[in-house]
Each structure stands twice: as C-alpha cells, then as structure tokens.
Amino acid sequence: MPASRPPFRTRTPLRALAAAAALPLLVGALASCGYGAGAADDEKSGKAAGGSTLSTDQVKLGYFPNLTHATALVGVEKGLIEKELGGAELVPSTFNAGPSEIEALNSGSIDIGFIGPSPSVNGYVRSKGDSLRIVSGSASGGVKLVVNPDKIKTVKDLKGKRIATPQLGNTQDVAFLHWISEQGWKVDPQSGKGDVSVVRTDNKITPDAYNSGSLDGAWVPEPTASKLVADGAEVLLDEADLWPDKKFVITNIIVSQKFLENHPDAVEAVLRGSVKTNRWINGNPDEAKASANDALKALTGKPLPAAILDPAWESIRVTDDPLAATLDSQARHAVDAGLLEKPDLKGVYDLRPLNKVLEAEGAPTVDDAGLGVR
C-alpha cells in the first residue's frame, strides 16, 4: 500500500442510499469510503491492472465491519482490491445487518457485497432467483457458543436458559435452532420461546446484556464471541466442530445479476483482488490481522484489544472456496427450523469468473455443489 494513500474519508451513506432508492430498512452505523486519489496516471485513465479498460468507472462494494469479513477489511485497507480496478473508483459501504445489504444490492446502491449465507439464500429465494449470484467464498468458521460458566457447565445445562443470536433468521440463528433440535428440544422459531429461550440481540448489545445478567450465553460470530470470553464467558462449543473438515461458509461474495451481466470484467477484477487478498492474508497473518484491526478502527472508531483480536482472528479462515455444499446444508437447516420453505437454489452460484481467476493464478478451481448456473 503506497505511503501516500489517502485516509478513509467519511460519507453519509444513508443519504446516498435514500437517493438511490428509498430503502425501507434503516442501515445502522453505515459508513463508506472512496479511493483513487493516489492512482498512477495510467490507472486514472480507466485501465484495469491488465491494461484493459473496464466497462464501468465505479464499483460499489458492501461489507460488514466484522472480522468474518476480513477479506474485505484487508482488501480495502491495503488497496489490494482497488489495485485490480485500475482507474475505476472503489466505493465501499459498511452494513450491520444482512437484510440491509440485500436491500442495497437490490436497489443498486451497491454492486457487490460480502455477506453471510442465510441472507444470500433469502435474497435469492425471495427474488425467485432474479436478484443475485454468489460468485465466491470469503471466510469459514469464526462462530462459537459461549456461556456463563457459573450457570452452564454442560450442554444439558442450556435447557431453560436465555441464549442470544444476532437476528431472527440470520446465519447463527438458523445454526443454533438446528442444533437445539438435534438435542431433542423444542423452540418456536419465530418467538424463540421453548426449552431454550433464543433471544435475538444485536451483536453490539450482547456483551452488555450478558454482563447485566439478562443473557446466559450467546451463539455468535467473532469478535463478539471473544468479547464475551474476555468478560468471563467460556466457549462451550465451536461451530466448526459440527462440520466435515471443520469448514463451513460464514461469508460469501455476492453480486447483483444486473451488474454481473453488464460488467463481468469489473466482477472479475474484484474477484482477482479478493483472491490476491486471501493469499496475502494467509501468507502474512500477523500483518493481515493488524490491517484488519486498522480497518475496524477507521470504520468504528476503535480497534479491538489483543485479548479479543487474537483468539477471534485465530478461529477464522479466509477462503476462495464458497464451500457450496455447506450452504446447501444451512438452507436445509432453515427449512427444518421452519424459517424457510424448501428453496430451489439451482443457479444461486456463478463461479465461472472466480474459476477463471483461480486458473490464471495457478490455483485449484472450486465447485458449486450442483447449484451453479448452466
């Protein structure tokens, strides 16, 4: 990243989103930043890294200020994604909830987004297969069930307790409801009432709710899980232990079908940036961790302390592979929980641009588990 690279410059994304389309959902703590002032003269002309001119002069990228979106955090902060766009402007925006990001994608306020599997499936199904495609993986793991050790020492102690998930129907909510059913317990999926009380709580609020005694634990992604551990909670279960090879998708890269159709070269450029970012993260884990924390500081106003950052970072694996078979399983879990009618997911993936990038990088291609476009 050049030393002359300009710092984050804040915008007013809510106003921008409203101007693009009157979104019905409030996008909490939405921030965005733009780059390009430090680009070389040949890049300013609109030429991508390979010398060809992109079909668009702007790419609007959405992601969360979460460590499970490490590819986006590092790729934007280090300029690795921007570099592949050449002179095209990268316009990032951050979101705190999947539905808000899906709304932004559908309205055209963003073109490409990093997002969890449940919002990806919901967005695809509700649009009858017309709104988005999953074009890459991004991260696996980073989800834990953490509990108050004074109240819960074994799995059976969860019965009758109050356990938080981030949001009704979100990826962790679905996983917890499915796991509860496997224990033989009953919970109403909508109200969360039953043998275990599932309390839908924003991740920003969960630590305070836990410390006040109103929650007995939480099934949450990083870094919220490690924040709770720092406050005295203990890890009862790592979700990775429930999956084959301890791998399951936690973050995808999605694109609006309209943008993919009109600007396939820009999508390929972003994917080239994400692949190179993941390779850099895996080759430079300590530097990458610091970069992600710098991005979090710029986006949220404060970095994570080492006691939270280190264990959280350790539990997340960046990956180009979308782990498509695990997304199919997660969709079936949502059906089993009563949160989703049986979906037709054929066509939810288009991995052709990613596999083209991977082949050019000399890396193995990835599989869509039979759910790709034909």
Automatic annotation (TrEMBL):
Q: How far does the signal peptide extend, from start to end residue?
A: 1-31
Q: Where in the cell is it found?
A: Cell inner membrane; Periplasm
A cellular component annotation (GO) from this entry: plasma membrane
Q: Which InterPro entries match?
A: ABC_SsuA_sub-bd, NrtA/CpmA_ABC-bd_dom
Q: Where are the transmembrane segments?
A: none
* The entry's keywords: Cell inner membrane, Cell membrane, Lipoprotein, Membrane, Signal, Transport
- Say if the entry is tagged with keyword Membrane: yes
Tell me yes or no: is Signal among this UniProt entry's keywords: yes
GO terms of molecular function: ATPase-coupled transmembrane transporter activity
What domain of life does the native source organism fall in?
Bacteria
PANTHER family cross-referenced by the UniProt entry: ALIPHATIC SULFONATES-BINDING PROTEIN-RELATED, TAURINE-BINDING PERIPLASMIC PROTEIN
Which family does the UniProt entry place this protein in?
Belongs to the bacterial solute-binding protein SsuA/TauA family.
The name under which this protein is listed is: Lipoprotein
The organism encoding this protein is Streptomyces gougerotii
